[in-house]
């Protein structure tokens, strides 16, 4: 983000004093701007136009994503999560919900809640997405009577479901639940860090490219 702001600042600071001056000089000599100068002018025009509506677009996208991450459920949600890039916020939201669910479940078990009661408590104040998942768990638990079977749902990745199916049958199940939740949190943190590094690298490349174009055009 800081690199994009740097480009916007440079464009606004140099547009009238340098870029438009070069453009006017070319026009006064009956020449059409070409090459790097033409590219630089195009970049400036785009940035100067986009800077006014881009913040509103970003806010709108954030609001829409937040609403959908909380409310989108079922097969459509699972399908959206598989879409490259577009589904990334949904998978991160799912993993956060999974970690929060397991942490809460562990606390409730330690305080003496039964499985059925614990699921009811979690569902009571959950988001529509988590409530949908917990409702499915309640139904499977009422039919099969085993928590390990209940936790086989889209809320958890396959490897997480596998670990839970093993740990739930051990004596220190709550400790293992906390361990799995911690692993999920670590995976989410690593993924977010990786995304941040990628965005940072793209920003550096864009800034360097703009400076190169600006230099060559002059």
UniProtKB/TrEMBL annotation:
Q: Name one GO cellular component term.
A: plasma membrane
Query: Entry's Pfam families?
Result: T2SSF
Q: Where is the Type II secretion system protein GspF domain?
A: 101-217
Cell location: Cell membrane
**Keyword tags:** Cell membrane, Membrane, Transmembrane, Transmembrane helix
Topology in the membrane? Multi-pass membrane protein
Q: Which InterPro entries match?
A: T2SS_GspF_dom, T2SS_GspF_sf
| Chain segments annotated as transmembrane | 40-65, 199-217
Keyword Transmembrane listed: yes
What is the protein name given in its UniProt record?
Answer: Type II secretion system protein GspF domain-containing protein
Organism of origin: Vibrio anguillarum (Listonella anguillarum)
